[in-house]
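TASK: fixed-backbone design
INPUT:
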């Protein structure tokens, strides 16, 4: 039962990764708007634009950086989709091959790592090439706040006060 739950959670996580990756690679999200900006301004633009009061020139620079990297990451996004399809095929008709699933999971992890590393490289490029000193200070303030929230959550988890309920047994 526990193995089935692990496989189910893994497949769901992979599906979500695939959707996010494809949207990132295609550059569009719901209703044809740019993807993943909380304000519909493109990947990463929601945070940068909304919190930092970017100038139009800075927004244009960031857009260029994002477009350059979208092309680079399109191949990774395609590989993620192929891997997702392989996962689905491997589990067809209730079949399960632990070795094959682990191999596919490792491939997916490497692809996700490439996307994460690229995203952080983009953030660094924007931080160092686009932002003013005041904007950089604001980013650091926000980063510290986020780290503090994460640490508070981890502390609650360690104390057992913020632990998700286990799934219902069937």
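OUTPUT:
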């Amino acid at each position: 039962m526990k193995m089935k739950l692990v496989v189910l959670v893994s497949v769901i996580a992979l599906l979500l990764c695939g959707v996010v990756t494809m949207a990132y690679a295609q550059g569009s999200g719901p209703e044809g708007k740019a993807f993943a900006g909380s304000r519909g301004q493109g990947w990463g633009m929601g945070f940068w634009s909304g919190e930092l009061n970017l100038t139009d020139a800075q927004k244009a620079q960031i857009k260029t950086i994002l477009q350059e990297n979208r092309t680079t990451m399109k191949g990774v996004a395609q590989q993620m989709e192929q891997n997702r399809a392989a996962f689905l095929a491997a589990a067809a008709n209730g079949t399960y091959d632990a070795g094959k699933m682990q191999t596919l999971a490792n491939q997916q992890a490497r692809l996700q790592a490439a996307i994460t590393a690229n995203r952080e490289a983009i953030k660094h490029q924007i931080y160092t090439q686009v932002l003013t000193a005041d904007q950089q200070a604001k980013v650091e303030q926000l980063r510290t706040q986020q780290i503090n929230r994460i640490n508070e959550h981890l502390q609650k988890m360690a104390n057992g006060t913020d632990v998700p309920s286990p799934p219902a047994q069937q």
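COMMENT: The mean pLDDT is 77.
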